[in-house]
Structure formats: structure tokens, C-alpha cells
Amino acid sequence: MAATDKPLLIKRYASRRLYNTETSDYVTLEDIAKFIRAGREVQIVDLKTGDDLTRQYLLQIIAEHESRGESVLGVDLLTDLVRSYTSQAASVVPQFLTASFEMLRDGQSKAMENMTKSNPLLNMPGFDAMRTQQAAFFKAMTGGMIPGAARDEAAAKPADDLETIKAQLAEMQDKLSKLGK
Questions:
Q1: CA–CA separation, 142 vs 14, rounded Å?
Q2: What is the pTM of this model?
């Protein structure tokens, strides 16, 4: 699945089956959820009418995850969302939720970046495996909301940072040897 600026087009047939136009095969809601978790934008349209059904299917994916016990949305939040449809808050809620998720994504990206920048163990044997486990942990804890580009950027270390890391490691070793005396 190639990353692209163009959304992955999924067509819904009259039989309600979903068709991936890139791979020319049928997909499930779980497949669509995997595409989205991988950072891909998806657009779902009705083949006959051309209506955009993306929102409807995204809500269905969320409902299925919530019903399986993968609760992200608490009852209080869901109650507030229902209330927002019948009040003046309906005009503010979408912008608030969008801004909140953007702040969350930015914060997670910066946390990952800071952890890799300040880690003197970058050149230690087995560090790549540990980094992979760390990324998997963050993905599990955040429901995969860490953008792939930010994760890849945080994992890539410029060569000029090597000297800084070596100096930090030497300083730590010096401090440890002084503590042992």
C-alpha cells in the first residue's frame, strides 16, 4: 500500500460490498480501519449514486470497536456528543474535537522525537529492536494515532548527532564511575 496524497477510493456496490479500486478486490471494515491506522486517507462512495459515505462507515468502524470492548469514548463523552447535536454547541464541537486531536498527535510526535534525540543508547546493540517495541507500545497505548511520518522522522537520526550522543554517553560513564568510588 503506497502512501499518497490522494485518498484510497472504496466503492460500495448495491450488495453493500466494499471494493478497493487500487487493488481491485473486496475489503471489509477492518481492512479499511487498517488502511486508516497506517496513515492512509480513505474515501467511500456509493457506486450507483456517487454519494460520499465515508462518515457513515467511519462511524460504523468506531461503533464496532467500541462494542468489542475497545472503549476509547466514555459514556460521559458520548452523552456530551449527543447533547451537542441538540444545542448551540453543535457549531463549536467539531472544531474543538479537531483541534484537540491535532494537539494530541503533535504532542505524541514530539514525545517520540524527544525520546529518540535524548537517548544515548542509540548506537547500542539491540537498540533497533527496543525502538520497534517502543513504537509498538506507543501505538497500542494511543490506538495508532501517531502519524507515520512523525514516527519515521523521529526514528531517523542525522549523523551529526552522533558526536553529541557520544559526549553524553561519556559524561554518563564518568558520573557512574565517580558514584562507584
A1: 36
A2: 0.53
